[in-house]
Amino acid sequence: MELTERQRDAVSELINIAFARTGAALSELSGHRVLLNPPEVSIVPTTDLPAALANFIPGEVASIHQVFGGPVAGDALLLLNHDGALRLTDLLTTDGQSHSSRLDESAREVLTEVGNILLNACLGMFGNLLDVRVSFSVPRLHVETLNELLGSLTAGDGGPRYALVIYTAFQIRDSSVRGFLVMILSVASLDRLIQEVEAWEERQGRS
Amino acid sequence: MTRTGPDEETLLSAARLRWMNDLAGHGILITDAALRVRAWNRWLEEHGGLGADAVVGRNLLEVYPELEKRGLDRHYKWVLEGQTRILSQRLHGHLLPMPTDASLSGFSEMQQTARISPLIHDGRVIGTLTVVEDVTERVAREAELQAQVDARTQALAREKAAREEAEEANRLKDEFLATVSHELRTPLTSILGWSNMLLAGGLSEEVRDRALETIHRNAQSQNQLISDLLDVSRIVSGKLRLDLRTVELPAIIESAVEATRPAAEAKGVRLTAVLDPRAGPVNGDADRLQQVIWNLLTNAIKFTPADGQILVKLERAGSQVEITVRDSGIGIHPEFLPHIFDRFRQADPATNRVHGGMGLGLSIVRQLVELHGGAVRAESEGAGKGVTFVISLPFVSFEGASEGAGRLPLAAGQLEINCPPSLQGLRVLVVDDEADTLGMIRAVLEHCKMEVITAGSASEALGAIAQLRPDVLLSDLGMPGEDGYALIAGVRALPAERGGRIPAAALTAYVRAEDRAKVLRSGFQLHVPKPFGPQELVAVVANLAGRLNEG
Predict the structure, then answer these.
(1) Measured between alpha carbons, how far is B548 from B551 in angstroms, rounded to an integer?
(2) CB contact, 8 Å: B83 with chain A?
(3) Of all residues in chain B, what percent carry a pLDDT higher than 90?
(4) Number of cross-chain residue pairs from A and B with Cβ atoms under 8 Å apart
């Protein structure tokens, strides 16, 4: 399954709106201007995820994971590499100097909150678009290797699934922390999402 | 079935309620969709200071108006839209204000993480569930852990720096030893070479004179080197003791200038001294201060080419006395200026070859000046522009200046003997088991028209004192049988009228600070390190003779 150029543009635009909200929320929280770079969107089968992400995230990955359910169901994740996760918490919560060399409890919590805000903004966007209520699980943070993470996501599950992979970077105080937003969806959920995105795009074009 | 009881659902519901209300280790707060509080568990009662009866039924934002002020009400709004929110401790500190025992954690508000979830029934959000966790201790513990990690990181960095410093010091020491051995061998080569030729004989008188002059000059240079080395070692080990008196600088500077003038003239360098007699006295060790000036002057002569000039100036500068030595020599590159007083540093090895010497002198200068509570600095406008050394010493007021100039300054490096007329006819007893030394001393003293009595042993000397009543006593320390210490003990045991208070100097190769202390404690007035020059010997005798009038 591939996105056409138009579909890709439409998804990007929608996510960009969610990003703007996330940036505003994080700016307010941290007292620093936070921007998220315009998203780069692609769709890959979950079996290709290791290859798609491995180059960007060697070593350990911090993931904030929320399961969502309803008419559209799946897994939503924010992925950061270990250093990026540390830097992001430092940039958001301290004077920006790197204080810690490990992700301690409170840093993990901050990441969970940041991931939660971002994932909720994006999923909320899709929920509104599809006019369905999406319910969320409590977000969980894991620090593990990419393979361990992907293994836990793709194991024991019938039917092919796809991942909507969104690449972005947090811009805070002249620093940039890159990250991935990954949404894993069944074929049916993805189809429905893309249809609705196209319909939205047409409505935008008309008005 | 005979028994009927509550069904499973009822049991579980009772258990949940009991757990939530009384047993949970977290705060649990339930509101309806209008944010009216519907449940407030015991944990919140205990920690929040508000009983359930005071809270339940009221709007949460009314109970805690600060939630709105802090923008936290938005989170509840999002939850009412179906989202789940996490409020992390680091970004928010706390959700609900609750006091904590500040003395334990350093926080006055409880540090919390909170999770707020929607309660959903039939697809509608009917309320919110807030779970509050007290993480105050955890945050404090993490901060402590981080502090420990930081401290360990710093300790490691310090350790590394110390190790590098030690390695550098070790490297400098190796270099130092290599330089010392090289510098000691250099004059030795000419001494050995020329003395071999002299022993072989058959040299013309002219060559013989040159040989002797060269041997003499090199021996002197080696002697200087050894005293410098010993000075450095004494200073470094903190064993150098200053014989502090009120010192008039003009006399000291003048004699240093006179001592170095022959060397300057031989090189064609003009040496001028401008000494302000009103510069005033300082508190210091006359010998050491003279050594300082002498070192600066020899340094200046070494680095100033023919037709150059050296100016020595003494002047008062506020509460300080300043001594300036300015030369028109090769100058110093600004980058090297900070290192100029380091031991064994010269601008570059090439200079070392040309100018010889190891740069010990300037290190000694700084150490001695600092021991006097003064400071020394070097200024140069760059290579080829000469160097100016400025020593500042604290000026002392005139009280106590009547102590006089202290020990006589000893002029080194002068071949011509300057004989004070007052010494004529003085009767000097010289004790040494070395005939060569006795002969040399006798020659010098007799040159100054003194009467010299010699003794080869302690007992011989004691007899001479009793019979011949010499004015002063010069004695070697290391002698077979009774040594110099035994001799002075015997002398001091005599009554004054039989010579028990005769001024005495020990002439010795034991030159460490503790040797000097032992010598002075044992009854000698002066400790004269071997080797010494003729002029120094005369000065020693003059000093001893000066004490004759004291008692």
Answers:
(1) 7
(2) yes
(3) 24
(4) 67
